[in-house]
Design brief:
mainly beta; Neuraminidase; 3 helices; 30 strands; PEP-CTERM motif protein; Ice-binding_C; Quinoprot_gluc/sorb_DH_b-prop; 6-blade_b-propeller_TolB-like
């Protein structure tokens, strides 16, 4: 196993220790970019957790968190999944306690948790056991969940990227139903996937790799819901491990991990991207995003193509040759409503950084990035290269908060990483009406760290 960049969690040797949810303990939070530190507050919501990942807000405002409890040795890859519910009754940004277990015994390596009505969908990416578990919520948020069935993936052996991301929205064509979106990754680092991926259980189909699919979910209120046949939405995606809908426009946004270095695993071959499908084009012709032949070279960029679906390719900033890096994009989330008066409308992206943490313990590739749609620029909102910052893989935006989950604050997701996870809460310090909003100045002018969109170049 190399210490190269991450494109999501990859399977190493299976070694683990079992640790249950631990109490909240005081710890130093990562620091916010100096230009923004006076406008935002970051607090430790919970800590001492086993690889916390994706999160979902429940009806009462409590937080549901997917965790992976290791068997023995400390690895996320040989684990069982649990769902923990946290409350914050006084709204101080610190959880009231260690978390209530509302589901356990799930397949481990939990990577996505999403709710649609009374249904909850949980993606487990444990190697060889990848699945989406469908559960029913109880009558109150603190009730235990009822498992209804699974969607089981049968990825070929040695598949590099499996399935990690979920997104849901109400169906625009079938009243009372929901659309569930999920990704199917690429089998290898730099080649088109040609082997289909069978799925069984609640869905029976053969899926294409390098893709995003959707299904329509119809729930009668009891028993397992029904699922439509999977419909491919996008292709040419190496690993779209973060998917979200723009709350203002309904457009579908997703990241894609760039190709790892072909000769040096620590130096990417192509840049990570943020892409978009306009709301009116979702479900039309299958959108092709070019992997493996059409990409933006890392550091050098390139002029080629004119695909407006590519919003931005993430290069080192301010100087691509030696600037601050961001590698291994994971979950994405749109800025909460209360952030817009400061930042404008845009997307947060969590970057995993090096797969198992940096050998020095400080990872220079794992920031939280904010991309501003209006100025087409981005900033490292929380810069990488900080002690105690591991992998901000999980993001959840609510009306006035951005929750961030760090899989392992010390870096490792195998040896020694269990019980080292944390969740942070980011809130805005609302400026006085007379204050000049950052949006008026523009991110590009204020920070000097802007990176305009980089067009793809084509091989051959």
């Amino acid at each position: 196993m190399t210490q190269g960049r991450s494109t999501r969690l990859r399977p190493p040797a299976f070694i683990l220790i079992a640790l249950l949810a631990a109490p909240v303990v005081s710890r130093a939070e990562p620091t916010i970019h100096p230009s923004l530190a006076g406008r935002f507050r970051l607090t430790t919501f919970a800590s001492g957790l086993n690889f916390p990942s994706s999160m979902q807000q429940l009806a009462d405002g409590s937080l549901l968190v997917g965790t992976s409890d290791p068997a023995s040795g400390g690895s996320i890859y040989n684990s069982t999944g649990s769902l923990l519910r946290f409350t914050d009754t006084n709204r101080d940004g610190v959880a009231d306690g260690p978390g209530q277990v509302v589901a356990t015994g799930l397949t481990g390596t939990v990577t996505s948790v999403r709710q649609a009505g009374e249904l909850l969908f949980v993606t487990s990416s444990r190697p060889g056991q990848e699945k989406i578990t469908v559960m029913r919520m109880g009558s109150s948020p603190g009730d235990s969940l009822t498992a209804l069935g699974t969607i089981d993936f049968a990825f070929p052996s040695n598949t590099l990227h499996t399935t990690y991301a979920l997104a849901v929205r109400e169906s625009s064509t079938t009243p009372g139903s929901f659309q569930l979106f999920f990704n199917v990754g690429s089998r290898t680092n730099a080649d088109r996937t040609t082997t289909p991926v069978p799925v069984s259980g609640l869905i029976d189909a053969d899926l294409n790799g390098d893709s995003i699919y959707r299904v329509t979910v119809t729930d009668s209120g009891s028993g397992a819901p029904s699922f439509s046949a999977p419909e491919q939405i996008a292709t040419g995606l190496r690993n779209a491990a973060g998917i979200a809908f723009d709350p203002l426009t309904g457009d579908l946004f997703f990241q894609d991990n760039g190709i790892d270095g072909l000769s040096n695993s620590n130096e990417p071959h192509s840049a990570d991207e943020l892409n978009r499908i306009a709301v009116g084009d979702i479900g039309g012709a299958i959108e092709d995003f070019g992997f493996p032949d059409d990409f933006v070279p890392y550091r050098t960029g390139g002029q080629g193509g004119s695909d407006d679906s590519l919003l931005v390719a993430f290069q080192p900033i301010p100087d691509p040759s030696n600037g601050l890096e961001a590698e291994g994009a994971n979950e994405i989330a749109f800025a909460p409503d209360t952030f817009r008066s400061i930042l404008g409308h845009g997307v947060f992206i969590g970057f995993h950084g090096r797969f198992n943490g940096a050998p020095s313990g400080v990872d220079a590739e794992n920031p939280l990035v904010f991309y501003d749609l209006a100025s087409d620029s981005y900033i490292h909102f929380i810069e990488g290269n900080q002690d105690g910052l591991g992998h901000l893989d999980g993001l959840l935006a609510t009306g006035d908060r951005l929750y961030l989950s760090d899989l392992s604050t010390i870096g490792p997701v195998t040896f020694g990483g269990a019980g080292q996870g944390a969740i942070y809460v980011l809130t805005a310090i609302i400026p006085e009406p007379s204050s000049v909003a950052l949006t008026a100045l523009g991110l590009a002018g204020l920070f000097g760290l802007a990176a305009r969109r980089s067009r793809r170049s084509r091989l051959g």
